[in-house]
Task: structure prediction
Amino acid sequence: MKKQHISDAVIRRLPRYYRYLDELHTRGVVRISSSTLGKRMGITASQIRQDLSCFGEFGQQGYGYNIMELRAEIGHILGVDEPRRLIIIGAGHLGHALLQNFDFVQGGFRLDTAFDVSPALIGTSINGVAIRSMDELEDYCAAHLPAVAVLTVPKLAAQETADRLVALGVQGIWNFTNVELSAEERVFVENVHFADSLLTLSYRIAKAPAGGKEQP
Amino acid sequence: MKKQHISDAVIRRLPRYYRYLDELHTRGVVRISSSTLGKRMGITASQIRQDLSCFGEFGQQGYGYNIMELRAEIGHILGVDEPRRLIIIGAGHLGHALLQNFDFVQGGFRLDTAFDVSPALIGTSINGVAIRSMDELEDYCAAHLPAVAVLTVPKLAAQETADRLVALGVQGIWNFTNVELSAEERVFVENVHFADSLLTLSYRIAKAPAGGKEQP
DNA sequence: TAGATTGTTAATCGATTAACAATC
DNA sequence: TAGATTGTTAATCGATTAACAATC
Result:
């Protein structure tokens, strides 16, 4: 039964399902039951069926799920089948790393261009993607209407740049700046807080008995 | 009342508390009540008090919390006050970005060295941190016993490298490879799955009514 | 058909919020 | 002292798990 409201917990599991299904698909596996998938992912079969039922009925009694189909369904739910334009703001080391390594296409995005303030970078291109001056941002966005901006600028420029992007109508900001942006009225913000992530690891180590991880 | 088991939800909020308190401290604010902090962070005062009560009693009736003290307490809980050695495995673009930009000291870590397989990188240093050959990994770890390894190697090398690190006794792996590591017996793994993060953003945009974010 | 496995309803568990006595 | 705000207990809410009829 399709649900109106989808909880955050479910949403955050969707990409994981997608990743596992994609891998099974690549390996040529054709079908899978919720209990087999659950064992592999370390979650219960109930949870998988409950999660999927938020979006529709994708399985078949006595059979399970067709992997190719389910993968496509979840891909559709995640929106990977309607490519959206994406720009990168800040071509420093991190922006560079994403330009070079990250597969935006697989996520349903089309990486159009990048922006930076450094004269040494402006006019060059990385991995086939042109780097433009931040001065061109307004014109570029007006012409190409990117849906998502990746924010990899220095901390101090974060809020100001985000405000600019919101004014230009981007729908989502993928925020790597470790700054809590206050612009969440008209835009979706997904934060990647490196520091928070590392600190949770620090906590677990600090809490573990000396000499190693505690047995679960 | 101190609790035995701390839920994951609480643990993941701790770094956020720490971040906010750190910022308030830097700005010279001396005290804060749970309700003021809650408003600022967008969570309830109840939740803050409930969370903190897992670890002890840090406030004072009628006053609130002393920011410097509470910051120090949470820092202690997170283990930032007992510096641990950290190494980076893979000095490609992402490793490079972390070497250059990330403040490991603030997280209670001491960035000792980095490893890579590229002859062009081995022997150089980035931001004062030497880059060594992966061949030296075993000797180095035996001598210096790093607590945490940052994994920024290509996908294909991820599992193998993780196994090596676990065998060498690291206590935590900060995993940037987007591979689900199966080594979680003797080590803590904290995953930074860029792809998952971007896909949740994709989902929200796909689901939002055309033209903008839905009102909350 | 018999066995397997779904989608869904009900039960349980855990996390968040509210309420309030204690007290600075 | 009076007002403010804590830590904690109780109430609520939501998410996970279990159970099972439906059915491929």
